[in-house]
Amino acid sequence: VTRLLIADDDADMRQSMRLLLERAGYEVGLASDGADALELQRARPFDVLITDIFMGEVDGLRAIENFRREFPATRIIAMSGGSGRLQSRGYLAAAGVAGADATLRKPFAIGMLLEALGQVTNTAAPSDQATR
Amino acid sequence: MSSHPDFRAGGGKTGPATGITGRKRTRPEEAQQRTEARLEAELADTRLLRSISVDLVLEGNADTLYEKIVDAAVAITRSDFASVQRLYPERGKGGGLRLQAFRGLNPQAAKLWEWVRADADCTCGIALRSGIRIIEPDVARPEFVVPGSPHHSMYLQNGIAAVQSTPLRLRSGELVGMISTHWRQPHRPSERDLHLLDILARQAADLIERKQAEQALARLAAIVETSDDAIISKDLDGIIVTWNRGAEQLFGYTAWETVGRPVTILIPPNRIDEEAAILARIRQGERMEHYETIRRRKDGTLVDISLSVSPIRDGEGKVVGASKIARDVTDRRRIENALQEADRRKDEFLAMLSHELRNPLAPIRHAVTLLQQVDDAEIRRQACAILDRQVDHMTRLVNDLLDLSRITRGDINVSKQEVDLAAVVEAAIETSRPLVEAGGHRLDITLPEKPVSVVADRQRLAQVVSNLLNNAAKYTPRGGRISLELSTASDAAAISVRDNGIGIPAEELPLLFGMFTQLDSSRGRAPGGLGVGLALARQLVELHGGTVEARSEGPGRGSEFTVRIPLPGTESASV
Fold first, then answer.
1. pTM of the predicted protein model
2. ipTM of model
3. Between B358, B370, B383, which is nearest A81 by CB?
């Protein structure tokens, strides 16, 4: 079973995604920020990190960098709805530079996430798989 | 004067009738007596002129000067009446003569001749347009004045039988006024009288001109001296020559301290090159208008100024210096900056608003998907709980937004009635409890034993207290302590909300109750709010005649917010 780690500071967002992804057959772990996510990953690595970018600070970008360095095999999907200062486009572009394999703009239909998951888990060249 | 225009409206006769006297033959002794008499007369004339001219030259007051010129004209020509007029070249075509002083004229005459235009048919009008002296030895049979005209009638009405008008000319030849003398009997002034009159006219013209120039200078000096703008002049080496009171106020130096020193004492070191560039342009005869720059005051502080610099030219048109007008634009700058800052805050607020409003959509969307696809009762219950919370959250945001729009329109209404503040506080705690509990905070509440009765809008006041509690919960790290105390002093009830949270830097305290200030705060952005809670709180408290204040010992040292509402019967409670 593919193991997914969802990092988002909004509890309802984490929870709703977990319920949907579990139904789709994934095993799901939850983290409320980047440090939390890294801790869980070190305890027992996940296959894919799905992380929000703006969690209080731009914590998600640091998480992406840390995962890239420490767990190069883990695929990463970044998601953002933007913040007061920057549109989601800006953060998602930054996430791509930091090493995310795919990016999603919030809010998104769960189908798009499943599609992105299918792409990042089935291919070996992640950088070509960014969806928008 | 070989020719002159036809200055009588009807045309006809030309030429002034001056000095037409016959000469008889005389015997030698008579001739000697006449010579002696003439010499004596000339000596007397010289004395008269000398005393007149000393008197005129020494006269300081312009009005008195005109009076003295009139008196002198009467004395010289032995006339019964006299007037002196000054030319205002810009007044009508050919200019206008204004009556400055007169002797003997009745009020109607003074009124008619208060202003005489170049087309008027009196001797002075004719003299003005012809440029030469006009003599009417017998007004009853006029050579120049039109019989029956208002001017002719006025002569007769005043009992004037003879009149002459002599132009006042400067050394340059420019006509600046008119001296007229009038007699009750037909009279042709002698060569001697006219000669003396010409000398008086020349002297009077120069004196009047000088007096006018002095007055103009004094006016100009008064304008410069009283101007709020700094007005400075300097020579081409950049040495300060004059320094007005505005300059004293703007730069803090007195004229004593600056005149004779280089103007660079006003220029901050990093702008010192500006002076050479300004002087170069001035030498080319160029002006600089509203050049915005920075200058240094005597006390070393810098001031934003708008500078206009113009070349000063001498009589030949050569540039000999520059005049500078400097205006303090610090206030304008500050307002501009404040406007830009407000604009920036508004833009950031809008960006933040759209983000905050979109945030709940993602979990809502997922919860709806779950409800559509899942039959499991527990999952459906969880999805409903998510929907519930997120819709609540959006409702709060939208309500905040509506309140915000009411604040900006000044359109918040409160409906006041007698309420117990303890009940208000309890309602607020009920509203804020989920947030306080979510943060794992401990909340201590201190209420007085007796009810605290005030006249207030229960719901709005509860909103204020709940905003303070929410802030305490948001800005205190997990597991913090929050205390709420309701107390009364002599004239007001106080509600204090204290926390041991992240605190507020001193420099941010004054900004706290402004709109949109959350974004810039080093407190970081608290999730799920628009940053209008405190602005709204202040507005609502003020509508109750109360105050709200914030205190913090600094970052990491907690915050305390205190709302004071006047008790009934105290002065401000009647608001």
1. 0.53
2. 0.83
3. B358
